[in-house]
């Protein structure tokens, strides 16, 4: 009886500069994805909930939440890029170019834009730029990501490292906003009479109060919905012998929980334009309760628009303790950030906010 | 760094008689809400399951289950009305006026119709009438509700209490039934050959047999689907120091489980017309198994209709013991009802039943 | 107060040869069923995920996964056939005749085709042929099933047993393949560049690597979605006193998990045509991690088709241990199969595979 090998993901040696992956399983996003996302996160951003209001604002129908779009697009890349990842090191320049609607189909490609062997000879860093296009071949979202990947056969570094440049902060002026959308008729009560752009200032800090406890099934359902097949989220038998002995919660689920919690304070931050980057400082597990705090780190008016403007938010996710009780969430020391052991997320994003 | 306050809900002092709240986050109900409701409850009422039969009965498509409609509409009111509730004291006159279909958008308002300070000076009772309208501005459902709400600053009662009148039992003759619906062609097997109106009598008692164990994720998903953001359902970290040390299951989820269990016996009670009121006598937690028993407390023919009639049901929900084994579920003593400690729900509703 | 009996399912005496059951609650399958199925299983078979590719292959839209179709159709039969089953003994000739699309409504009937009393006088075996038709009255799937059912009143065997013939292996040449579907334009990357028909041989063995841990809510949601109302899956209070003290996972959920895991290796086995039979050798419970291994037991070209062909797969599901570590999954001894105590599923199916 012949034993047929199953695909086990790519190792460091399998990647080469300029190589392009056409990821498998293009995905049609449905109304049900949006509904399930609400059930999984409790998100209340109204553009994604009310068809009437979406249309009043010039959308053809309810657009999908760009966080959901990102998770689905990201999930497509796991099988080729990060199945053998020792660590998901970072992502940047997550740039949303096109609104998504129920019925749209995403196909995702990734190009290898950098490679760097580690001195230990056991692994290296792979840098990719991934791009999700819709059925009209329009770019929906693109991003850069770097992961540390095992070598199939350990060997000392032998190639010249190529490390791509990327922006730590996307230029707010270049970010896409939905072209025909207009928000002048927005009524305050749509989004619970919350802050508008002019009410907040750079340096403002918002603790979003509510907490969400992660159930085992919640994050499993979410991660399977995104067809993200990283083993660490699903296989308890294998995880029994891992460092924590538990399944890890997909970092994207934490992002979505924090964003959902942010509604309470940032309910008028209606449209995610970009993610500059994120750090998942500590792992999360089922049973953890997630809290969220946001810092306003930048704001920009958009020339010729008086209905909306851009806000840059640092979204901090904390587990099992209220930011109110904690001495610090992070410390900045000589350019180095030290995180509290309860801090699970430090995300930097640009969002369009109602004026 | 300025600390921006997040909305923390209204306190007793924030309410005034005649005040109207336009609740945030209008909600488009989709086919996926209906499907997810099936997955969350196991409900089998066939009008909400089979497009073919719904159309045969004169509906444009499968109507949404009014229990689901109620939970979504109710969820909208939590943020303004009951975020600081010490207790959800009661609801009444839940009157369904208009069938809902996938694609309909609900917007909900509440008017303060009563206020009564408690003698302890710490809190008071707020009475509201809430109304959900669809995108055509037609009333879908309205109801009365009263909650005990904290005062921001304790002070002795100083105002004349206003307590609204309400009906403990809606007049069956005034209840709305779907205008073009007709059920003469209904075939017995559609709903598992169950009792019809003429088979049951006032005083009949039906134990529905099946049991449903609540998983932590089930009730969390349901309550997030309804965008009900009461903290007690979601935040285990905060609940650790609460009386029970556990997250509470949203009472509406118990109602839906009991209604789903009721199919086995009341499968021909096809259309919820009204809820007269309900008592959530004891809390439910993940891990509890719910059983249900129904008493027929009234029945009325509808003049000019020989296909359907009205039945008033007292639906009793019990946890972790079978009503068959229990000496009593409740006791009536000098006009006072005492509930068994395992009784979690006592709901009084009017339902349209096939003749 | 009259106690009205609720339907408690049929007992052995309630069945007679040739009897036909029109099962209750016909069911419209929606896009949301497909999406939820993805979230529950993590399945990635691309025909059911990407509208663009489904259309490119000649489908009107994404067809539903036949495993999902089967679970929904099967669920309909439980109330009449197996509510009092002592054991679900087997099924065979599961034959998919017609593709299903979102919006289709399934109605299911079963005919009693065999009866055999057991010598213990306490129960007997009921054989039924079940058929699910769509709203155009076209057969979608039919199958044979036999269950051991309690007698209402024990009595010694008194009737001549009738045991129907059935095929242990459906004839590959008679199986339906979607009539207008064509796969010549399929691009390798759609399904992660996996094996095609000509890459695999009879006798090949594929261990699919990934593992999926079952959460309590996962299988409850799935089984309720299928409206399968067997008590053993839902009622922990009743199961406390059962042999295992735990709720049993619906065998169909295990089938779906194994099929989802099989993507990794059999991603080009795109269309389930038939299930020859299955053995659920050991029960599964929440907390179990499921692994899967497939054996190729037959393959057939389809005359006049060079884009697709037929493969017969023996899909083996294992819990809580990797097939890689196990000495054996099953043993064949003098025509008798002995299963490892960790083996939970042995399923024999015909699938259409890309050439």
Automatic annotation (TrEMBL), chains A, B, C:
Signal peptide: none annotated. It comes from the Bacteria. Pfam families: MC_hydratase (PF19315). One of its GO terms (molecular function) is lyase activity. This is MaoC family dehydratase.
